[in-house]
Amino acid sequence: MRMRAAGAALAAALSLVLAGCSDVEDAAKDAAGDAACSVARQAMDEAATQAEQAVGDLGADPAAAKRELTALRDALKTLEGRVDGESGGKVTQARKALDRLVTQADVARAGTPVDQQAVDDAQSDLDSAVEDFRDVC
User: Fold this and answer.
1) Residue 2 and residue 5: Cα distance in Å, rounded?
2) 19 burial level (CB within 10 Å; 0-12, 13-18, 19+)
3) What is the pLDDT of residue 33?
4) Which of 11, 54, 77, 132 could be joined to 68 by an S-S link, Cβ 3.0–4.6 Å?
């Protein structure tokens, strides 16, 4: 009789543990998602800050500005493949804005005056994408 009671107690304990596994799994997934968002948010914030600095260098050192903007664009391109859903869409918007800034850096490097309106629009789009990303992720 004692064996049956011990067996029943063990079975009850196992069912509680197994039932709790899904809660633990969900918590682990949420924590991993939060960590990924934190890293992605930091990358997006840095891209916006560094892009602003690079754009400031367009007139003085367009080659350096192009290198910096290209590196930022490529970093976001890598991030695009790792973030999905609405967050991924915001990363894509930011990357596309950086594409346009790289184009203007090419123009400056060639000695042609940049289209300041295109630069301003791209920076505005980048800032909006980063801000929207913060709201989503």
Assistant:
1) 5
2) exposed
3) 58
4) 54
